[in-house]
Amino acid sequence: MSPEKPLKIPLFPMASGRDEVDELLGISIEQLTKQVPFRHTPHRHDFYHLFWVESGNGIFVSDGRSYPLTRGSLIFVPPGQVHAWKPNDTLNGYVLCFEPASLFGGNDRPYRLLHDLGQFSATTKDRATFQIAGSTYQILRAAFKDLSNESSGSAEFRSDMLRSQVTALLIRLHRLCLSTTSAEVQGYSTQLNSRFLLLLQKEEGKLQRTSFYISALSVSTRVLVDAVLAETGKSPSTWIHSIHRVPSDSVAFAEVIEERGQRRKLAPNGGRR
User: Fold this and answer.
1) For strand 44-45 and strand 65-69, is the pairing parallel, antiparallel, or unpaired?
2) Residue 93: which region, alpha, beta or left (left: phi > 0; alpha: psi -120 to 50)?
3) Are 194 and 258 in contact (CB under 8 A)?
4) What value, to the nearest 5°, has the Cα angle with vertex 222 and ends 98 and 229?
5) Cβ 89 vs Cβ 59: under 8 Å
6) How far apart are CA 221 and CA 257, in angstroms?
């Protein structure tokens, strides 16, 4: 019996299944009601997505996890992220696709915005969507409508207006990340740090490299370091080496962790120096 071949996730360019693509600027904005053949099967792209849902409901699947979609759902999808859609009824809204290398000049490209949003999307696994309501919903609804009208038009300075409108949407999304998800990001760090310390206790007596814990926890080096530093004030490698210098029974291990946690709570700035 021949071994199973690994699942191949198709990579679709922007022009696939879309009628309104400005190839010169590398941008497309269309109604969600527009039928795209591959939308319901797992796939990925080499460009950025912003999805905005004004009505309807369904399921958004990102990297194998499902998230509910409803009125006011806003989704950021970076290049390479595997995703799919499962609508329960007709979804109304917009899907914005853009390629920064074409849309922006080298000096005007919003590198930090795209980097931060990509990092957020990669680390905050408990929620892939923002749920927008109130005045912010009305602002975003108008922003997407204006962007759609500008994209389909031919007014003077159209390119400059599209760049500014896309940048404004990215800035607004970035601010949403900072203002509405700080507790969520903090919760993710707390959970990851707890998993790291439990695994460290399980591996007591075995001097494993930091790469072992990164692989076992299925996270990147940066994510693990940031989480453990934020929660304990010490890097993972410091924990690994310090734990192997304490008595080997589990009670002593737990006491050391508790003592260090108490020190961090009492120290100024969360134990950071």
Assistant:
1) unpaired
2) left
3) no
4) 135
5) no
6) 22
pLDDT of residue 34: 79
What confidence tens digit (pLDDT) does each residue in 177-202 have? Answer: 776 544 444 555 677 788 888 888 88
Helices (H), the chain: 100-103, 111-123, 134-152, 158-180, 182-202, 210-217, 221-232, 236-243, 250-266
Q: Which residue ranges make up each domain of the chain? A: 11-180, 184-265
Contacts 24+ apart (CB under 8 A), 58-61: 58/85, 58/86, 58/87, 58/88, 58/89, 58/91, 59/85, 59/86, 59/87, 59/88, 60/84, 60/85, 60/86, 60/128, 60/129, 61/85, 61/86
What mean pLDDT do residues 59-84 have?
A: 86
CATH code for 11-180? 2.60.120.280
Which of the residue ranges 22-31, 105-114, 133-142 would you say has the lowest mean pLDDT? 105-114
Q: How confident is the model at residue 145 (pLDDT cuts 50, 70, 90)?
A: very high
Q: Which two tokens stand for residue 45?
A: 């792209």
What is the pLDDT, as a whole number, of residue 125?
Answer: 53
Residue range 255-263: average pLDDT? Answer: 49
Q: Are 59 and 86 in contact (CB under 8 A)?
A: yes
In the block, tokens 């997407």 appear at 144
Angle between helix 111-123 and helix 158-180 axes, rounded to 10 deg:
40
Give the alpha-carbon dihedral of 258, 263, 266, 268, to 10 degrees: -140
Taking all residues of the chain, what is their mean pLDDT, rounded to a whole number?
Answer: 78
